[in-house]
Each structure stands twice: as C-alpha cells, then as structure tokens.
Design a protein that fits this description.
By secondary structure, this protein is mainly alpha-helical. It is built from eight helices and three strands; from the N terminus they run αβββααααααα. The chain has one domain. The chain has a three-stranded mixed beta sheet with strand order 1-3-2. β2 and β3 form a beta hairpin.
C-alpha cells in the first residue's frame, strides 16, 4: 500500500478487516478524519498480492477523488426523505391510531407521498448515475496506479466469480451501502431498471479496462519503435 500511496501522492489511510467470507472492499471518509479502507476476510483469501494491489488502488482512487464524501452528500437527502415517508407510514399503522385520527393521518399521508416521492426518485437516480461514473473512473485510476488495466479487469472478474450467487443480508446492515462497495452486494436491476444500478456491470467495466490496455500496449509499441529508430 505504501508504494501505491506514494504513486498517488496521498497519505496512507487506516486499514481494517471484516471477518466475512464474501469478498468485498470499501472506504469510509468522514469529514476531518483519516479515511479508512475496509476489506473482508473473504477478499484476503480470494486474491493474491498483485490482485489485492488492484483492489487497494481502486479504493485509494475513491479516497483521493473524495468519492465517499461526494456519495454521502448525494445520498443523505434521499435517505432523509425516505426516512420521513417511512415515519409517516409507520404512524399511519400504529395500533394507537384509530377511527377519525387514522383517517386524518391517511389524508395527510397521501399528499406528502405524492410530493416527496418524485423528489426522492430524482435524487436516487442522479446519485446512481454519479456512482456508476465514479466506479469507472476509480477502475481507470487503479489501472494507472498499478500500470496494468488488464490486471484490474482480471481482479474484478475473479472477485465476481468468487462471490458467485451469494447474497448475505447481514452485510447490508453491518457493512457500508452498495454505493461504496467495489462490487454490489444487492442484485442489480436489468434493462431499463439499470438507471437505478449503483455500479456498471462487470462486463462493461472490464471492456473499458480492455480498451485502456489496448491503448497502453499501442503506446508502448510506438515508444519501442521510436527508440529503435
């Protein structure tokens, strides 16, 4: 990690390991506090040292680009709105609310939902667009730090294969939200529903890295030809 931090011209973050077997990593960067990079025991077991470097470089890119802070700012309003809607729904269904009070609560609840839901959906959609873009950019930065776009792509494929079809509900509450994960824990939507996806698909990410690898190889070939000439 020290070598990658020197290359990225940044201070090393704190590191912590979670005792979960699902391969996962993410970063937490609270204001005015040293960032922390988290990996799971499953990630440490699934990858070799070079592949772990690719994961660390991806997470360091998020820290350097302040993506954790950015996603926190973007997701806080939607979380607050959904929380208020849930609170109103819960009050609507409290056992203590009955008769005329229940009817009045229902009448008040519906306009609030009609007002807040579109705002919440718009905030969610915009934050997901930013999240997908930042993941692609972190992949690119990781490729530059490690000097191997193909290595980053191979690492993503290996993590995806190691995870298989596993979905662990406890990780959704113990670990961070999917916007901060290297690969999402939740099953991602397909088709038009991709607008709500937090991450690009693994094939899309590896394809972008493949193009970058091709450009890098061509640049190296041109440099060798120029040196021979």
């Amino acid at each position: 990690m020290q070598r990658l931090c020197v290359l990225a011209d940044m201070s090393p973050p704190l590191c912590s390991a979670h005792p979960f077997f699902l391969p996962q990593s993410y970063t937490v960067a609270k204001p005015w506090r040293q960032p922390t990079l988290y990996v799971t025991a499953g990630m440490l077991r699934a990858l070799d040292d070079r592949e772990l470097d690719a994961v660390v470089a991806h997470e360091l890119s998020h820290i350097s680009n302040r993506d954790a802070v950015l996603m926190t700012v973007l997701t806080t309003p939607e979380s607050w709105l959904y929380g208020r809607v849930w609170d109103m729904w819960r009050v609507r269904h409290e056992d203590s609310v009955a008769g005329a009070v229940s009817v009045a609560t229902a009448v008040m609840f519906l306009p609030a939902v009609m007002l807040l839901a579109p705002v919440g959906l718009a905030l969610t959609a915009s934050s997901r667009v930013v999240s997908r873009h930042r993941e692609l950019y972190a992949d690119r930065c990781a490729a530059l730090l490690t000097g191997s776009p193909a290595g980053v792509a191979t690492t993503l494929l290996k993590i995806s294969k190691a995870r298989g079809g596993l979905r662990l509900p406890d990780l959704r509450t113990v670990l961070a939200r999917d916007e901060y994960h290297i690969l999402p824990d939740r099953r991602q939507p397909t088709g038009l529903g991709r607008v709500w996806a937090t991450h690009p698909t693994v094939p899309a990410r590896t394809a972008a890295l493949g193009e970058m690898e091709g450009e890098l190889q061509q640049a190296r070939l041109r440099a060798e030809v120029s040196a021979d000439g």
